[in-house]
Write a structure and sequence with these properties.
Structural class: alpha+beta
Strand content: 15-25%
Number of strands: 20
Oligomer: single chain
Largest sheet: 7 strands, mixed
Distance between the termini: 108 Å
């Protein structure tokens, strides 16, 4: 550490001693850079007046052609002496650094010193020379010398190329300077417009980022050279000073966005893509700090951001270039050209390179080369996309051809398999058709068997119902025949009496006696009763036969309009023998005729009523107390038949299975388990619904809902 300290001390002493070797600037007529002949005094307090500065011994001689003053809030005083050996008495002092907040020239006169003040914070129109650089008149008679003082201060680091020359020579150099800048701006505008049109055509966001970067890097360069102050913000110096930081920040953000899009960092280098996002955030904070008035902080931050951007971009493009990604190689070339121009420009400012027309424009040339190469890289990417598309198309064609070959082979195999399978399916289908026909036949047989089983169970009752009135008739036949025979005998006796020779009175007396002997009045009454009994038996038999005819409905396969109440009544006649000791309550509504299959519905009614009778008898046995209630109602679209009993009822599990084929709760031999299944399917065929309300141990209620108009499309 001691050795390092001694070296620094020696260098400092050597630098300070140069302050005693300040040379007079000899002007002979050509433009000269006077940086090495200037002594510099730093005023950290910013309180020194001109007289104190003149007496100060703290001036240090500059050791470079272009004094480079660090970023500081200090005032800097520059002292230099000029000897005019040219024929011109009016010279111009040109500071080619347009972003100075304070620039005051103190020049001698006959009584002392006068001062002339310029600043980039003043409106441009107030300047004597309409140029962005600071130009001062320097009047020195021929072969005489004068000492001048220049006070400068800026919110950013100051690089002060100071040129002394005649007005004509300075004007010529400014004209050349403006022309070269015009060429650069023209190149930037051409690149911007071309790529803007390409963006409009392709809608590729990368072109928009390129246009934004070219715009802001151009504004950055022109702001640092003062052209935006001269041509854009001539009446708004505050905006010009704001742009010194915001334009580079926006250029950095645009470049990073362009790199993300152009290089595909999100997919190829996701970690570095996050670094790019972080740098973009830093740039954004820099703009915010500058807007809030933190000038020195924002200048430091813009330097840090530029360093981070340079390093991160180089890492990405070098890595992708090594991976063989062609766009990254062109990006690397463009970025390198730009940085070479920047480095040469900085080396000139540091005095490593001479101050001349070549080193003065390295940054501008680097910028022009960069935007041009980036534009070529974008165009080359289109060619790459085109080649990739063509290659992809070739791959697709080859793949399609291969797929076609495979598909053709597969089709041949499939055709063989399909033929074989089709033959098998045809055989299976024929078997299924045969099986289906058998099932349909079996189903019909089962349905008929259920009907026959139901009718078989009711045959005895029906026979009993018919036998009662028939017996009544037959039992009256013999008494009636006997009485008729007596009547016929009486007619013969009366005829004989009438033909006898007896008197009229005698005949009447004989007939009257005979009638009393026969008890003719009783005989007449008995015959009336016998005939009435025979008539009632015949009528009852006719009613039963009619009920059987209505129930059977030989035309059941035809859709017709029928009376539901009549069908229920015929069913009750058929099921009458099942209802012993069961109270039947009927509440028939005034129903309209409905379109239906009457015979099938009668079968439904019989199945439900017989099940209700079975449930009631199972609960009450021979004790009585069983009830079955039959209620019919209707609305505008449907009729409703409710059959409610107070039998054994059903639990939830039984209710779920009650319509399944072959499910029954009856004992073996008492039921087939098809009755309710047939009933359910019949009601569904009529587009109706069956609802069950049942409680175990309390009874069940079946509600049939049948449409009045039969919809054949839904059936």
């Amino acid at each position: 550490m001691k050795k390092v300290y001694l070296i620094l001390l020696i260098l400092q002493v050597s630098f300070l001693t140069k302050g005693f070797a300040q040379k007079t600037i000899v002007f002979t007529g050509n433009n000269i850079v006077i940086g090495k002949n200037i002594a510099i005094l730093e005023d950290p307090t910013r309180k020194l007046d001109f007289q104190s500065v003149r007496k100060s011994s703290g001036f240090i001689l500059s050791h470079t052609d272009v004094p480079n003053l660090e970023l500081s809030t200090s005032d800097f005083w520059l002292r230099f002496t000029i000897k005019n050996e040219s024929s011109a008495s009016l010279l111009l002092l040109n500071l080619e650094y347009p972003t100075l907040d304070i620039c005051e020239l103190y020049y001698p006169n006959s009584t002392g010193y006068n001062t002339e003040k310029l600043s980039d914070t003043y409106p441009f129109e107030k300047r004597e020379y309409k140029h962005q650089d600071f130009l001062f008149n320097v009047k020195i008679p021929k072969d005489s010398s004068s000492t001048f003082y220049l006070k400068v201060q800026s919110g950013e680091q100051m690089v002060l190329p100071i040129v002394l020359g005649t007005p004509q020579k300075i004007a010529e150099s400014k004209l050349t300077h403006d022309m070269l800048w015009g060429v650069l701006i023209g190149i930037l505008l051409v690149m911007m417009l071309y790529n803007a049109f390409v963006f409009i055509s392709t809608r590729d966001i990368g072109y928009l980022y390129y246009v934004a970067y070219t715009l802001f890097i151009g504004l950055t360069q022109t702001s640092l050279s003062g052209y935006t102050y001269r041509f854009i913000f001539e009446k708004s110096p505050a905006l010009f000073n704001l742009g010194i930081v915001t334009f580079p920040a926006l250029a950095g953000i645009s470049l990073l966005l362009f790199a993300q899009s152009f290089l595909g960092t999100k997919q190829r280098m996701p970690k570095m893509n996050k670094v790019f996002i972080l740098v973009i955030i830093l740039y954004s904070l820099t703009i915010i700090f500058r807007i809030l008035g933190f000038e020195h902080v924002s200048y430091r931050m813009i330097d840090i951001c530029a360093l981070c951007l340079t390093v991160s971009v180089y890492i990405v493009i070098i890595k992708l270039s090594l991976d063989g990604y062609r766009p990254a190689k062109l990006f690397l070339l463009a970025w390198t050209m730009f940085l070479i121009g920047i480095v040469l420009f900085v080396l000139r400012n540091l005095g490593v390179l001479p101050y001349n027309n070549f080193t003065n424009y390295t940054m501008q040339v680097g910028t022009a080369l960069e935007v041009t190469l980036l534009s070529l890289a974008l165009a080359d990417r289109i060619n790459i996309f085109k080649l990739e598309k063509e290659k992809s198309q070739e791959d697709v064609v080859r793949a399609l051809q291969e797929n076609e070959r495979i598909i053709r082979e597969q089709n041949e195999m499939l055709e063989a398999k399909v033929y074989k399978r089709t033959f098998q399916l045809k055989q299976t289908n024929d078997e299924l058709i045969t099986t289906l026909d058998d099932l349909k036949q079996t189903q019909s047989q089962l349905v008929e068997a259920e009907k026959m089983a139901s009718l078989g169970q009711l045959t005895a009752g029906i026979a009993h119902e018919i036998n009662n009135p028939i017996n009544f008739v037959t039992s009256n036949i013999n008494p009636l025949k006997r009485d008729i025979d007596i009547i016929f005998g009486a007619l013969t006796v009366i005829e004989n009496v009438g033909l006898s020779d007896s008197s009229r009175a005698d005949k009447q007396k004989q007939i009257q006696d005979y009638k009393e002997e026969l008890d003719f009045d009783y005989l007449t009454t008995e015959i009336g009763h016998l005939i009435k009994g025979i008539n009632e038996g015949a009528n009852r038999t006719a009613e039963i036969v009619k009920g059987l005819r209505v129930f059977s409905r030989l035309d059941e396969d035809d859709l017709k309009r029928a009376d539901i109440n009549e069908g229920l009544e015929s069913t009750m006649i058929i099921a009458n023998n099942l209802l012993n000791k069961i109270k039947v309550i009927k509440d028939y509504g005034d129903l309209p005729l409905i379109e239906c299959y009457p015979g099938k519905l009668n079968q439904v009614f019989l199945n439900i009523i017989s099940n209700a009778a079975y449930a009631v008898q199972k609960r009450f046995r021979e004790d009585g107390g069983g009830e079955i209630m039959i209620v019919t109602t209707h609305d505008d679209e449907n009729v409703f038949i409710k059959v409610k009993d107070n039998g054994t009822g059903m639990d939830a599990q039984t209710q779920k299975k009650v319509f399944e084929p072959f499910f029954t709760t009856k004992d073996v031999g008492e039921g087939t388990g098809l009755g309710m299944s047939i009933a359910y399917n019949t009601i569904k065929k009529h587009n109706g619904h069956v609802f069950i309300n049942s409680t175990l141990g309390e009874g069940s209620e079946f509600i049939l809902q049948i449409p009045i108009i039969f919809n054949t499309k839904l059936a």
